[in-house]
Amino acid sequence: MDGRPLYLEPRLEPRLRSLLAAAGTLHSLTDALGSPLHVVVPDQIAENLERFRSVYRAHHLSGQVFYAHKANRSSALLRRLAATDAGVDVASLGELQHALGAGFTADRITATGPKNPEFLWLAARTGVTVSVDGTDELDQLASLVRTFGLAPVRVLLRLSGFEASGVKVLSRRSRFGTPVRELDTLLKSVERHGDAVELTGVGYHLDTTGIAEKATALEGSLAALEACRSRGLRPRAVDVGGGFGVSYLAEREQWEAYTSALTSAVLGRRPPLTWGGHGYGLRDESGTLRGTLGLYPAHRSVAGAAYLDDLLAQPAASLGGRPLAAVLLEHLYDLHTEPGRALLDQCGLSLARVLEVRGPEPGGELLVRLAAKADDIALEDHGVLMDPVVVPRSGAGPGEGPVAVHLFGGLCLETDLITRRTVFLPRRPDPGDLLAFANTAGYAMDFHATRAQYQPAARKAAAWQDGDVWRWCLDEQFWPTTPSGGAQ
Ligand SMILES: Cc1ncc(COP(=O)(O)O)c(C=O)c1O
Question: Mutate which of 51, 52, 70, 175 to test ligand 1's pocket (most atoms within 8 Å of Cβ)?
Fold first, then answer.
């Protein structure tokens, strides 16, 4: 191993830290249910919801927090949320059915994203709010309402292409929503379908961490609400979508040390830090660094509910520079949010059994093969770099360390790497040990899962604390009554 280990240790809050320390439970769970295995922690999502709620309270704002279901298929997490006062944002027919079956009533559901006719029909039939992409979707919805004699459907208009006042900077291009410059056409369509739809608000979702861009979009949405009201329409909600983010790493210094070492490695000033010299978007062009780092900012000083707080404190330049929260409050508008990743922060981990440890390679790295595919632990797909935690088989000694390893999956593909990064571990893993990837509930558990080569997709268990003991059941068997209902 060359030089000091470059650790990227996960940020662990007490619940996940405690679960990781329950090595015996994690091993018997994996022995019983197989590797890989995802474990979700439903009580954490309720705690995360409460953090969002407290930001609403601090700004005296009303409105709903809609969990973006797409980020995890788990029934346990969804049902735990159904037992709170949260809403859910569904993006497919299956997600809508799942939400209804988990106990969410229509007034707590919004339907977003691309919609097929069946999805639109069930949304209209059950009376959920539909976030419409454009005039075509409005036409389809109105036609369903008329054909099937349904009650008018509540709609939110998804907008895009916002422009900061005075500055020609558009928010990033999106394939979703209607550009705000076409609002007039969209509103004519709303008016034409006045018998079939009821306009309740406008919204956006921007896939960015940039707060200025989001503040511009929120300000633009407030202007759009005014435009609606000046024509006699009565929307009163603004939906700011998701994208509040998660801080994955415990230490900022580790993230900075890693990214600067990666840059040096790409420029050939130190040995490679990745399999095959992969640069995560960076490349060397005759000694000059080119490209952009295509990684999630794994350490963030502001994320989740705190990011919402920051957004609300941004000044609305076109509205006298007052904070956006003050403008929302003054108009008594409802604020809707759709956090996915942020509500799932600390809500689970993924376990993979070590099958083989080979090496070391000439560079000093060990090759570690796991009973999992890269698709099962998809942190890398989302650009999240974070070390797994070694959970030794009970009775194992401390092991030698630190070591540098490459983590491979079980497919016969050169590309089946759990991460392309050389991972540094404080101890050498042995076959039979588990590697626990913390904080995988947001998008990294099942979003990309496949059954390639007839290998199983990971199963999912739900776990909760009963005093000092961790208890569990299969994800699909969890209901809010489970932990206290003595079902175990
Ligand atoms: C419309 C909409 N809302 C909310 C989200 C959730 O985003 P995040 O998980 O980043 O909070 C997404 C993500 O794709 C989305 O498309």
Answer: 70
